[in-house]
Known about the structure:
Layout: H1 2-14, E1 25-28, E2 32-38, E3 53-59, H2 61-71, E4 76-79, E5 81-83, H3 86-96, E6 106-108, E7 115-121, E8 127-133, H4 147-151, E9 155-158, H5 163-175, E10 180-184, H6 191-196, E11 200-204, H7 205-212, H8 217-225, E12 231-235, E13 241-245, E14 248-252, H9 265-279, H10 283-297, H11 313-317
Amino acid sequence: MKAEKQLFSGWEQHQGYNMADFHDIFGLGQCSLDYIGKVATYPPPDVKCECSEMTIQGGGPVATALVALTRWGLSCCFTGVIGDDLFGDMIQESLDVEGIDTSRLLVRKAAESQFAFITAEPEKQGRRTIFWRRPTGDPPAPKEVDYESLRRARVFHTDGLFMEASLAAAEAARAANVPVVVDAGSLREGMLDLARLSDYFLASEHFATALVDNNGPVKACFRLSELGPRVVGVTLGPRGYVAMAEGKMIEKPAYAVNAVDTTGCGDVFHAGFIYGLLQGWQADRCLDFGAWAASRVALKLGGRAGIPPHNEIQRWSRGI
Length: 320
């Protein structure tokens, strides 16, 4: 795979392209600044609640997935929206320091960046509650997507928050035979259209519940598979996941850990799936790696601190 990539890149350089234009993953979606505090239990109304620990990290489904993939040796570029505020500077720095190409990050003037405050409950299996505000600047327009870079990527990854741009990018990716991976957190308008354009559609339990009216994740997988993706799945937190890969149903429990905070677990699950996809693994192995990587994230506060380093992937492969 690496040799093929090098030959392909050499051909592209001969055609006048710059190697900086090539990335394994082109991401389009949310980027956030997260304040995460640890509490014993979520408080009732009108009660003061002291945090025993606090951390500030970058967040957002696609942005955090790209952080994991970059740490695992893959090249990533990101398109999202920040404001020209302090939080925007911190969000961009959190991506730049990881080596993610942020040259396509859109900075909106006189606007505020996406922000989240999160309470984590280690005594409740790392359960967390998220309060968030989307960026106040205009979302990316389809014309602001770098389609040339998208067409030369190996995977397109989106969370569908910026639906108009996500649909346009997914259409372009499909036309260029670039696999489309969707992190479906919420059943927003347009998400089923995005599913029709995707190759791999992995949804949260919240999404599945809204889709099939509490009739279960298996039914949600059947419903989503009818829309055309090769692999669909539903993540179930500490209960694991269910998925359908080309007609085969897969149900696996989660890796058992003493979870501190489940922030970012879904984001890194998707990163793990994409990593496996680019290694040429079968769908069940991609999903299992995603589940393992997500379980490591739950051991630390915040969505990025617990991302397992690249050298631990071989240990997982050997079952250590």
